[in-house]
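Shift notes (night). Ran Thioredoxin, mitochondrial while the centrifuge was going.
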Amino acid sequence: MAQRLLLRRFLASVISRKSSQGQWAPLTSRALQTPQHSPSNLTVTPSQARSINTTRVCTTTFNIQDGPDFQDRVVNSETPVVVDFHAQWCGPCKILGPRLEKAVAKQHGKVVMAKVDIDDHTDLAIEYEVSAVPTVLAIKNGDVVDKFVGIKDEDQLEAFLKKLIG
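Came back to this:
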């Protein structure tokens, strides 16, 4: 019962702390503090509040939903895009994907990464001549400027991204 009450207070404070401008206000731990009881059985909540800083997650990796989404987010992108053609059943894809995401995240927004599941989007795989997975394309200003097939180590991925960024 007490845990539900604490959870309810916490959620209420999180929901109510977003301002009208869309920015998050600091979260105080007052809602998380355990009430203290005085000798007269009155509940007293300490007035000292600690703030917990929160940050928004800025992701540079996204999944392609369909052809128009690919056109909008990849081909028409002003930012260079690394496109990872992969499949759920592909073992090397499961190794390359996280490595590539980590390397793209290190670029701090200079490049973004689109993930395309070839089983869901065979039309895109055929259009970009993907014959094996993983296949990674580097697209800049709507044009494919570089490509590799297979798994790469971190150093090779860094060099690939540096070449794309210029």
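The two ends are 58 Å apart (CA to CA). The longest strand covers residues 143-149.
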